[in-house]
């Protein structure tokens, strides 16, 4: 059974990454914040009695399910709005998520970065952010879970509700797509 401190520490440790991942997926920061908060509340209310080591997978699964539920609700809402008014359409100006706004700006070393290096780094991060956002949904989800959340293949498969082979395929395709897109834009990592 997780103690209150363990639960609190766990939720603090995942909140920013969960928000970024969800914002990438739904492309709406307010909706992402609601989804993450609802998922955290559900973990605290329903799964606090579980051992602390089980919380990461439980939370990731709840977050994935909550995100899918959001998409289902959006689909229904959009269908209703289209039927009610021909003036209402899909909103393409949906507040794109900006990774750069959420990056930790603290430096890890004592050396400071030149203005040119800082601008160059920010430009590369914007390009990477854009390319990650362009990945197909399942590839982006697998990529973010594996390399952002640092889950292993089995944990990622459990969160995504698919086989380990599918996770490997999605990750491989995502990495190859990102590498190709970044090379085409002159970015080499």
Report on this model:
By secondary structure, this protein is mainly alpha-helical. Helix 1 (4-26) runs parallel beside helix 3 (55-84). The protein has helices at 4-26, 29-46, 55-84, 99-102, 115-134, 137-148, 153-160, 164-184. 72% of the residues lie in helices and 0% in strands. It starts with a helix and ends in a 5-residue tail after the last helix. It is globular, with a radius of gyration of 19 Å.
Characteristic terms for this protein:
single chain, 189 residues, mainly alpha, 72% helix, 0% strand, globular
Q: Could you tell me the strand content as a percent range? A: under 5%
- Count of separate DSSP helical elements: 8
Percentage of residues assigned to helices: over 70%
End-to-end gap: 43 Å
Structural class: mainly alpha
Rg from Cα: 19 Å
Number of distinct beta strands: 0
Give the CA-based shape. globular
Largest sheet: none
Unreliable spans:
82-110
Mean pLDDT across all amino acids? 81
The helix/strand order is: HHHHHHHH
Q: Summed up, what is this model?
A:
The protein is mainly α. Helix content is 72%, strand content 0%.
What order do the helices and strands come in, and which of them pair?
Layout: H1 4-26, H2 29-46, H3 55-84, H4 99-102, H5 115-134, H6 137-148, H7 153-160, H8 164-184
Helix pairs in contact: 1-2, 1-3, 1-6, 2-3, 3-7, 5-8, 6-7, 6-8, 7-8
């Amino acid at each position: 059974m997780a103690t209150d401190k363990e639960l609190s520490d766990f939720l603090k440790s995942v909140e920013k990454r969960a928000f970024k991942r969800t914002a990438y997926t739904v492309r709406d920061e307010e909706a992402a914040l609601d989804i993450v908060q609802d998922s955290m509340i559900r973990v605290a209310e329903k799964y606090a009695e579980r051992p602390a080591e089980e919380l990461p997978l439980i939370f990731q699964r709840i977050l994935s399910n909550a995100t899918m539920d959001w998409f289902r609700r959006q689909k229904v809402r959009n269908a209703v709005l289209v039927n009610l008014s021909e003036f209402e359409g899909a909103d393409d100006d949906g507040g794109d998520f900006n990774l750069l706004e959420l990056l930790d700006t603290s430096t890890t070393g004592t050396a400071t970065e030149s203005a040119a290096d800082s601008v160059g780094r920010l430009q590369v991060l914007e390009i990477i952010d854009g390319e990650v956002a362009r990945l197909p949904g399942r590839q982006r989800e697998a990529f973010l879970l594996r390399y952002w959340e640092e889950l292993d293949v089995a944990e990622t498969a459990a969160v995504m509700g698919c086989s380990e082979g599918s996770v490997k395929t999605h990750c491989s395709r995502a990495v190859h797509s990102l590498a190709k897109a970044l090379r085409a834009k002159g970015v080499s990592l």
